[in-house]
Automatic annotation (TrEMBL):
Gene3D superfamilies attached to this UniProt entry: NAD(P)-binding Rossmann-like Domain
Entry keyword annotation includes Membrane: yes
Location (main, coarse): mitochondrion
GO cellular component terms given for this protein: mitochondrial outer membrane
Gene Ontology terms describing biological process: cyclic threonylcarbamoyladenosine biosynthetic process
UniProt family annotation: Belongs to the HesA/MoeB/ThiF family.
Name listed for the protein in its UniProt record: THIF-type NAD/FAD binding fold domain-containing protein
InterPro entries documented for this protein: ThiF/MoeB/HesA, ThiF_NAD_FAD-bd, Ubiquitin-activating_enz
Protein function: Catalyzes the ATP-dependent dehydration of threonylcarbamoyladenosine at position 37 (t(6)A37) to form cyclic t(6)A37 (ct(6)A37) in tRNAs that read codons beginning with adenine.
Annotated localization: Mitochondrion outer membrane
Amino acid sequence: MSQWLSDLASSHRLQLGLTALVSGGLAITAVIGLQNARRWYDVHDLKDSIPDLDSKHDVEKINNFGGAAISDTTEQKDDERSVALARRARLGDYDEDLILEQLARNRVFLTDDGLRKLRNAFVIIVGCGGVGSHAAAALARSGCGRIRLIDFDQVTLSSLNRHAVATLSDVGTPKVTTLQRRLEQIVPWVHFDCRNQLFNAASANSQLEGWTDGQAPTYVIDAIDNIDSKVALLKYCHDNSLPVISSMGAGCKSDPTRVLIGDISASTDDPLSRATRRKLRQGGVKEGIPVVYSTEKTAPGKAELIPLPEEQFQKGLVNELGVLPDFRVRILPVLGTMPAVFGLCVANHVMLEITGYPHEYVTGKVRDKMYDGILAQLQGLEERLAKADGAGKQGVRMRVTSDDVGYLVEEVFRGRSVISGLASRLALARWRKPEDKWIDDRTPGQRLDELPLDALVCMTKDEMLEHEKLVLRGDRRPEDVYDQAVLDRVEARWQEERDMKTRWQH
């Protein structure tokens, strides 16, 4: 044994090996110690850089745009680095492994195929305020490869309660530019196309055109709060078979549990949705457009649209107070969280649609059965009138559909009786007794009821039965039965409908 140990001790190779092992251990120890020391110093430097609460600081410097002034060039250098990084990433100088790591959670959820579809998608977002900015941020963070941003407006101080990424230093800059600059710092490989423009029917062809390589839009997001522009966008997408989802009004809303996604024909409780539906219907679009909307209703104590002060009206030229002609000049109360909820719902829908992920939304309010019931009541009423008019016992057919019933009840008459204002047990009935020959029996074995929609009014079932007895089967006119307020209400409802139809045709 002693001889063996003596041989080992005299081995040159063993001595070198031991020396190397000890040296390596010392080197590792030194490196770890250096790293720990550097980490300790970095942490303390960071702590030292945070001012105490009683330290002097200047937060009152405001630049000409209303944004916070930059006291040094640190933020500017950060922005410059972000822009340079984004430029290199778009040219391909970005590690694909890093991108996939950043999108890892989406990748395991949507699968590789779904994520590939999303990264190859081209989404256009029209309107980059509270709703549009959150939709854009969510899509960009999730890996959507190409995003076109369209908005004519600039960031204002009042935008900051709901905008997804804008800061004080962005006040006065175009919303589209702000979104691109901020999102490039998060996802520098995403390609943005910014259009600081107002959307309208005349510019639709150029603004909704394909990408520079000819790729057609995969999806369009409507986050516009002006009805005319909104209708123009939705009509264009419908006529050109462009997939689109529209955000309805988030203003004056406060209950996120009532935010739903459904067809535009189902969004009956939202004023913006109602106006949009009515205008689209005049253009021949009744359904087929998914929307995000709220079923929340107004109630005492809840926020309402704030009118302009009376002194503003006394000055005249109220329209000059708006940014653009025909855009609202009244103050719309908005809880900052609600546009975010709407925008995230929109982005979520677009991602599921693009990737083919299975989704089925719960219908907020199923009123089809109610409309079918009202249609059946109207059918029965018309058959009783035909029988009383000597047309025999054979039934009659009507051109009125359940969809027509829903439109009349919800859009024209606001879901309430025109007589009492009640909203339960509703029915439709002729306003005046039919005159002349109102049954078309020229086709053998078929009797067609020539019932125009503008001959109908909404009332409760009990009011309908009384109206039938006194007016439709009696000898009295509506003017003999109802007061002037009811008569004016009926005329106002149908005059509004005629005016809307006229505006659309022009």
